[in-house]
UniProtKB/TrEMBL annotation:
Its cofactor is heme. PANTHER family: BIFUNCTIONAL ALBAFLAVENONE MONOOXYGENASE_TERPENE SYNTHASE, CYTOCHROME P450 FAMILY 4. Heme binds at C402. This is Cytochrome P450. Keywords: Heme, Iron, Metal-binding, Monooxygenase, Oxidoreductase. GO terms for molecular function: heme binding; iron ion binding; monooxygenase activity; oxidoreductase activity, acting on paired donors, with incorporation or reduction of molecular oxygen. InterPro entries: Cyt_P450, Cyt_P450_CS, Cyt_P450_E_grp-I, Cyt_P450_sf, Cytochrome_P450_Monoox. Belongs to the cytochrome P450 family. It holds the Pfam family p450.
Amino acid sequence: MTTAADRTAIAPVLDGPRGLPLLGSLPEFARDPLAFLSRLASYPADQVRWRLGPAPVVFLNNPEMIHEVLAAREFTFRKPDLGYAFRHLLGDGFITSRGPEWRRKRGMVQPAVRPRQVRAYAEIMSAAAQELASQWAPGRRVDVTAEMLALSQRITVRTIFGTDSGVREEVIADSMLIAQHQIGVEFRGLGPMMPDWMRTPGRRRLKRAVDVLDTEVRRLVALRRESPTERDDLLTRLLAARDAAGAHLTDKEIRDECVTMYVGAHETTGTALTWVWYLLSRHPRVRERLTDELRRVLNGRVPGYEDYARLPYCEQIVKEALRMRPPVWMIYALADEGATLAGRPVRKGTQVWMSPWATHFDPRWFGNPQEFSPERWARDASTAGTVTENAWFPFGGGTRVCIGVRFAMVASVLVLATIAQRFHLEVEPGEFAPKIGLTLQPEGTMHASLRPVTTD
Ligand code: HEM
């Protein structure tokens, strides 16, 4: 692995597109956000300055600086407000919190996703994948995105609320779907500019869905408090959690953290898996190597937590898919008093944009970036130099790094290993360009036909 500093020096700062008076480059960004980000990434500079309406924005093109800003969030940079829909659904969960409140809550949730706990969730992950594969029949045509989002939803609901029959999975799933859809709508459109008091039909639907969700989560929390048996789900961990002063989370805080973890986990992991199948179907050689590894290691067995470490090629495929199609395509930071970047002051209020999407395709950091090559992630020396430290950041980094990295990687590998032992998903021809919403999803319906894996 090389470091960004090993690369040829480029200009420290350049002015990017000039844009229009008042609007800056907002129209160009809104027209095709991903193309605009790629354009910014093509400037030969570590930092590219431009304007989003009246707001000054710095786009970072250098992994070391991205690393520096991500590490400084919660100190001299902060996460900006992600808008009404996001806040209304997540409440005061720790994604939307800041400072001591964030630290307290993150500290209380963290034990629920540490590796020992993820080991307990692994069984749910493989079982849900096995359940899905058992419902599939050879030759059937499936909508890959819908299937993977539904699978991720099942895994998420069951790891958070448990597997007992008292949990009405579909009530939670349906309300979440409506709410997440509205977040995506607001991310894409004029949502960030609409005041909170404005009521659109979409916002009214969101409110109704959140009311239903709250009633269901309250019911589940009350049930657990009535019969507090020890279980291996996140809700059990949250009910038991205590902060440094020994205080428990209130019911409202538990609701907010459950929803936060759901939103963090569901669409991101489901989308990552969708792209894994797409990329595999376009690269038969990779699929062959995968089938080989699965035969050698599992030989038809359903994988468990211990198998994660025994399936390095599966892990490499997931990492490479997260490079080429990072579900979280953009990460923001807002400069506070005293913010600096590469030793220079940054004006308070400046937005800093960092895009896994754009950086992951920069040929300075990844050799042949357009090529889907899980081999670049192999630990042996033959592939050194094809990836750059800190240039791969699908999970963000620094203080506010994704809390679910281990969960997401284990879930993705176990789902891939379970299903790929039984089926190849032959995605129908088409480009399925990525489009932005809450996450980076394929444009159009991605259909695949299911071809059974032969055992000879
Ligand atoms: C492939 C799947 C996933 C991807 C690509 C992903 C990506 C990310 C990224 C980029 C961030 C940082 C956002 C920022 O800095 O603004 C983040 C934060 C977060 N993620 Fe994930 N995530 C994934 C899965 C999960 C899972 C499985 C969970 C829960 C089990 C989760 C829960 C969270 C939470 C709660 C945060 C907020 C952390 C904080 O603000 O302290 N994510 N995720």
